[in-house]
């Protein structure tokens, strides 16, 4: 797009966003190039590809990819498209195997993505200049943080540790509260589509607890009662932002979990509070299941308490596919895991009494922009109670009070910076403080 | 008035697993019911669909047995060679409910605070291909059916879902109650933003 400047579309100081970024096909194409082909993207939990030969397929932007555990134990991520004529080489969402064979001509690729063989191989062997090693499935860089596997197709991207930065310290509240690590509950992703721009759900999770007080009144009533048992205000609550990743939270320990309406589950969580506090310290232990939501830039989000983790996969400027999983500590009793499986489904899935009311909002926030006059009026991201006081002594940019648009302004700032940046060297990263380990 | 007012019995994990395995095992092994009984079962299914179309949820709730297991499992794309079953009660699901859970869901609708149902969705629920068989339990019948469920909201907002149901109906005074229901959608990616609906 000639003359397009993303920074002209976002005012991250006061807080306004140009609605054309949720609509224009050219802006979307630039997002695929400058955001999705560049950043680290979540692709799998290690528990999904535990054994050699196990794989899942997913998307990085609109690029279909395979995540596979190779014989050497490494997790590889590569394009799910044969370099011969371009057909997809794997059609299963998950499975187990030794190779991926293209249906079209039978080219076969190993668990590392390398081209292994094809029918009538001699025809290629006798082709001058043809080398097997030139025609593997294109590989991404892969790195993990406490069970979560990320990948990027950018050679210039900073390390995953640099990219997550101080956000790791907070992530431990959900990724490392107990010994033994975490896992995704079985059965693959719960997948559904919404006719919305991918940024609306991502910005909702990065810092919008404000909507819950109105959108979810009906969904919260059956478990919490008309005037609610969960308190949301700006006392004892925060927003933290690092490199566009954001988490809004309070100190209620299991405030989110309460809306699943399962007293046994809350009793169990309460029984773990001392041990988790001993492991993480009181501040982060109180975040474990609290009233909170988070997004890892650009499109990987989660909710403490329900422990739903999800990607908002872009499918054009006006369509998003949601892939959701539920994460639990591996050593949790089976009965409690099952309660989380059903509790997260009943609240945050396409049939969930809370999620059902979100999709409607995001679809109409997107579709309204069909109107020329409508999409030329900016949206308001200005809420900054008390001018948002920076909180000292915590890693990242922390502001007091979870009811604010602070993280959403930082999310769109990161978006604009990456969209305008020619290379990664034009993307400044927050300097991490010392990251301490979760467990002593 | 609200169905959610008093708590209903739930199912333990073991009871739910047992109910799921029972539904998974229904393939029309028993003798077919006689024509008169089939007619009564068809009438029950038609009435149930109409109650849902007309949002008469409290009446519909009255058709559910206290030991109800109501299940819509996820479908995943897997190769034929994959030894894991297509469907497992341990997997994530779209619905995995006891009667108490259904009461919670009705609580959302009955709150009159679910903005996305106001103005209301208009529904048409077509149930067809009904087959019914005797089961090992006296007075409980295995019922297979197919459905098309159409929803429309506001202006252009519409969803058509079709699929298959496997039910266990229990004969009670003057009619039937739903003891088990497995709903199989053919979609691996739900091509809809929500399931703000019952099947």
UniProtKB/TrEMBL annotation, chain A:
Superkingdom of origin organism: Bacteria
Any one GO MF annotation of this record: 2 iron, 2 sulfur cluster binding
What keywords does the record list, in alphabetical order? Answer: 2Fe-2S, Aromatic hydrocarbons catabolism, Dioxygenase, Iron, Iron-sulfur, Metal-binding, NAD, Oxidoreductase
Q: Which residues form the Rieske domain?
A: 40-151
Alphabetized Gene3D superfamilies for the sequence: Naphthalene 1,2-dioxygenase Alpha Subunit, Chain A, domain 1, Rieske [2Fe-2S] iron-sulphur domain
Asked if the keyword Transcription belongs to this entry, the reply reads no
According to its UniProt record, which protein family does this protein belong to?
A: Belongs to the bacterial ring-hydroxylating dioxygenase alpha subunit family.
The name under which this protein is listed is 3-phenylpropanoate dioxygenase
Automatic annotation (TrEMBL), chain B:
Q: Which Gene3D superfamilies match?
A: 3.10.450.50
GO BP terms: namely: 3-phenylpropionate catabolic process
Instruction: Name the keywords, alphabetized.
Output: Dioxygenase, Oxidoreductase
Stated EC number for the protein is: 1.14.12.18
Q: Which domain of life is it from?
A: Bacteria
- Class of the enzyme per the UniProt entry, highest EC level: oxidoreductase
What InterPro entries does the annotation carry?
NTF2-like_dom_sf (IPR032710), Rng_hydr_dOase-bsu (IPR000391)
* Stored CDD domains: ring_hydroxylating_dioxygenases_beta
Q: Does the keyword Membrane apply?
A: no
GO molecular function (one): biphenyl 2,3-dioxygenase activity
The family note in this entry says:
Belongs to the bacterial ring-hydroxylating dioxygenase beta subunit family.
Question: Matching NCBIfam families, A to Z?
Answer: PRK10069.1
Name this protein carries in UniProt: Biphenyl 2,3-dioxygenase
Question: What lineage, starting at the top, does this entry show?
Answer: Bacteria, Pseudomonadati, Pseudomonadota, Alphaproteobacteria, Sphingomonadales
